[in-house]
Amino acid sequence: MSRAVLSLGSNLGDRLANLRIAVDGLANALVAVSPVYETAAWGVTDQPDFLNAVCVVEDAVTDAWGWLWRGQALENAAGRVREQRWGPRTLDVDVVVVDDVISTEPDLLLPHPGTHERATVLIPWLDIDPDAVIPGRGRADALLAGLDVSGVRRRDDLELR
Ligand SMILES: Nc1ncnc2c1ncn2[C@@H]1O[C@H](COP(=O)(O)OP(=O)(O)OP(=O)(O)O)[C@@H](O)[C@H]1O
Ligand SMILES: Nc1nc2c(c(=O)[nH]1)N=C(CO)CN2
């Protein structure tokens, strides 16, 4: 049994449909799905805005690696091709945390290393888990308080389920 937080992002093609591929594919494990946010790209900033969301999932048999593989299968289902780091993509599924697991394995870093500085993850995560904690980093609300949130805009006109 494990509970995980997954972040979803898309900035290519039909962005909402791509996020729905992920949510539909996780349906049997879904505990909560956040609102959708329109977000200015960080990293490589010269690319289209993203839609971002976060979901909490739980499953009796899926472990941390299992969430990574399920995420990668969903990226493939959305037609993702491996390209530039931080570049545009039809669907990105990152494993943000799995319970209180810490992993330094490069193929599965937990907690996901960028999380504490990404308002695009922390804001939707806090919507569905106001007491969210990043193991080794602290409370998500306290981390978010130090970040620029100006590029993150909630899209109440878009729903994932
Ligand atoms: N927690 C994690 N969640 C998803 N992928 C991870 C994680 N930790 C390591 N990886 C590895 O990251 C690689 C995928 O990276 P990807 O191309 O999606 O990076 P990115 O989305 O461009 O950047 P970032 O990881 O900073 O968001 C895969 O090889 C995967 O095994
Ligand atoms: N706003 C935003 N920017 C990004 C995102 C993302 O999900 N949202 N993902 C990236 C690659 O992981 C690179 N840049």
From TrEMBL:
Residues 85-96 form the 7,8-dihydro-6-hydroxymethylpterin-pyrophosphokinase domain. GO terms for biological process: folic acid biosynthetic process. GO terms for molecular function: 2-amino-4-hydroxy-6-hydroxymethyldihydropteridine diphosphokinase activity; ATP binding; kinase activity. Its EC number is 2.7.6.3. Keywords: ATP-binding, Folate biosynthesis, Kinase, Nucleotide-binding, Transferase. Pathway: Cofactor biosynthesis; tetrahydrofolate biosynthesis; 2-amino-4-hydroxy-6-hydroxymethyl-7,8-dihydropteridine diphosphate from 7,8-dihydroneopterin triphosphate: step 4/4. NCBIfam families: folK. It catalyses: 6-hydroxymethyl-7,8-dihydropterin + ATP = (7,8-dihydropterin-6-yl)methyl diphosphate + AMP + H(+). The lineage of its organism: Bacteria, Bacillati, Actinomycetota, Actinomycetes, Pseudonocardiales. It comes from Actinokineospora globicatena. It holds the Pfam family HPPK. It is an enzyme of class 2 (transferase). It comes from the Bacteria. This is 2-amino-4-hydroxy-6-hydroxymethyldihydropteridine diphosphokinase. InterPro entries: Hppk, Hppk_sf.
